[in-house]
Amino acid sequence: MKNRLLIVGSIAYDNIQTPSGSAEWALGGSASYAALAASFFAPVSVCGIVGGDFKDSDMARLARRGADVSDVEVDRGGETFFWSGKYHDNFSSRETLETRVNVYENYVPKLGGASRSAEFLLLGNIGPDVQKCALDSMKSDPFVILDTMDLWIEIANAPLRELVKRADILIVNDSEAKKLSGERNVIRAGDGLLRMGAKSAIVKAGEYGAMLFHPDGFFAVPAYPVRELRDPTGAGDTFAGALAGVLSSGGQTGFRQIKEAMAVGAAAASMTVESFSSDKLEEAGLGEILRRAECVRKISEI
Ligand code: AMP
Q1: Is the separation of the CB atoms in 275 and 231 below 8 Å?
Q2: How far, in Å, from the CA of 117 to the mean position of ligand 1?
Q3: Which residue, judged by its Cα, is nearest atom 1 of ligand 1?
Q4: Tell me: the pLDDT tens digits for 58-102?
Q5: How far, in Å, is the centroid of ligand 1 from the Cα of 232?
Q6: Tell me: the pLDDT tens digits for 258-274?
């Protein structure tokens, strides 16, 4: 029997402006990106909530690669999570213009039987209260991958810290790692995340790749070299989703397997940044992800 991966997180509509163009009402959200990436590798269930404005075609898009969306609640009277963001000239900084959590305001995840017994759990970026509720509802004792972002570090710091202690892998970007750990140097920040109780931590550094802090050692994976950057939104969620999918499909979660999964995560993320929403990732598919993962492995050789 194959391991199941449960993904909890936001399912959103995004308005995005980048130096390469803009998109409105693009399918986004941490769970959407992660589920699309993970379902190339493993059986996936998605848990989240959408409003009455959520298009059937977008639900079909989430389910197209076989993801089970039966735990996605539809609140007909509410509006889907909305986020809008703007990237500055060099793509390196992003400003959140607006976050409307809408139907996530008082959301309590309700997990069906298959989800509750999933062996792997990706707590994608969403409020720590929602993440905790999903984790507490699990009947299995899953391998937990925890993602978050600056907003939650600022407004829900204490509950987030409690969750960090329960994470097998904590995934954050470099500035979030510094903010969460209180360190100014990225390496000290990674070490700090382990001291906070995460069993291992991945610190992402965008176009420069990602670092793994693990009791068995330190590792760094480069990013796949992308020349046509269009929209970095969702790169982190795609990385987390592909990594979780690969670990779930192999079932082994040691230092070596996490390193391998990071190469695939980097490959998948490189496709997300080449289009708005997850268009490129969906179009190009598994063959291209694996080709890029091989390239990432080769780049790392000396
Ligand atoms: P990333 O670029 O990997 O940080 O992910 C961006 C995605 O996360 C967008 O599609 C947004 O809809 C979603 N998002 C933005 N802010 C939040 C938030 N505070 N909680 C959950 N999801 C968010």
Answers
A1: yes
A2: 27
A3: 234
A4: 999 999 889 999 999 999 999 999 999 999 987 878 999 999 999
A5: 11
A6: 999 999 999 999 999 99
The full 3-state SS of 109-146, as one line of letters, equals CCCCHHHHCCCEEEECCCCHHHHHHHHHCCCCCCEEEE
Q: Which of 276, 278, 302 is nearest to 289 (CA)?
A: 278
Please give the pLDDT value at position 89: 80
Q: Which two tokens stand for residue 171?
A: 């995934």
Q: Which residues of 62-78 are buried (b: 16+ CB within 10 A; e: fewer)?
A: bbebebbbebbbebeeb
Q: How far is CA 217 from CA 191, 214, 239, in A?
A: 11, 5, 21
Q: Please give the Cα distance from 189 to 213 (Å, whole number).
A: 10
Quote the ligand 1 centre to 213 CA distance (angstroms): 24
Which residues have CB under 6 Å of ligand 1? 10, 12, 14, 28-30, 83, 99, 125-126, 149, 151, 233-237
pTM (2 d.p.): 0.97
* Minimum-distance ligand 1 atom for the alpha carbon of 239: 3
SS3 state at 14: strand
pLDDT digits 0-9 by tens, 8-31: 999 999 999 999 999 999 999 999
Q: How far is the CA of 234 from the centre of ligand 1 (A)?
A: 7
Q: Give the atom of ligand 1 at the shortest distance from the alpha carbon of 30.
A: 8
Whose CA is closest to atom 13 on ligand 1?
29
Residue whose CA lies nearest to ligand 1 atom number 21 = 126
- Give the integer Cα–Cα distance in Å for 148 and 164: 10
